[in-house]
Amino acid sequence: MDEIIQQTRAVKDLSSHVLGRLETMLEGPAWQGGGRLPPEAELARQFGVSRPVLRKALVKMRDAGRIISRRGSANFVQPRADVVPSAADMQGLSIQTVFDMKRCMRFRQVVECAAAEDAARLCDPEGIRGIEEAHRRMLTLPPGEGVFEADFAFHMAVARATRNPYFPFALGTMRNQIKLMMEFTRKLQERPPDQVAPRVVEEHQRVLEAIKAGDPVQAHEVMSFHMKQSVIRLLVEDGA
């Protein structure tokens, strides 16, 4: 019995030691945007412990919201946003968990659906040209250039097409959070940062067409669909 107790204590001590090393590792710059952890067998060898010991440490990190598991297999580090947005009302907000991402996406959905609706209702030629230009930029993205800037430019163009400065202001305050979520989603899907997803381009095209047609209801609906698909991609329910 004493031997079993000693072995149990030894495992706990080792797992605590591994937990500390994992936490230190994930504080490094390479992991601030999240990413996929090496396989458990590789990590166990790296730390010089057995897989059961490593798993105890990983369980604690999952409980703390630092990592998540994808369909019960790979472990992914959740990103952290330490940059505080410039707007006073956004101070203190950061993305540290998937729950934070979902809340941010919910707010973004409200703002962007209303923006698309108002842009279609106004149907301003200059605003539409701005959306078209942003859309073309994503279609002709040079190799090696990240998708985020082109994607965000499209959504900002829709916001500006409302001619209501509060829409681009609200969206602009979320820029860092949106970038973090997009980068994390791409890491989950193991997609290169410069690879344009055809489905995203198609969804943008539908938003553009609804706004050009001056159809507020359709613009709201297609933007809502696009936002919902973004949540699905974030949660890795659909790798497309």
TrEMBL record:
SUPFAM superfamilies: GntR ligand-binding domain-like (SSF48008), Winged helix' DNA-binding domain (SSF46785)
Alphabetical list of InterPro entries matching this protein: GntR_C, TF_FadR/GntR_C, Tscrpt_reg_HTH_GntR, WH-like_DNA-bd_sf, WH_DNA-bd_sf
Species annotation: Neorhizobium galegae bv. officinalis
Domain of life per record: Bacteria
Domain HTH gntR-type per the UniProt entry, residue ranges: 12-80
Keywords: DNA-binding, Transcription, Transcription regulation
PROSITE patterns attached to this UniProt entry: HTH_GNTR
Listed name of the protein: Putative L-lactate dehydrogenase operon regulatory protein
Molecular function (Gene Ontology), one example: DNA-binding transcription factor activity
Pfam families, per database record: FCD (PF07729), GntR (PF00392)
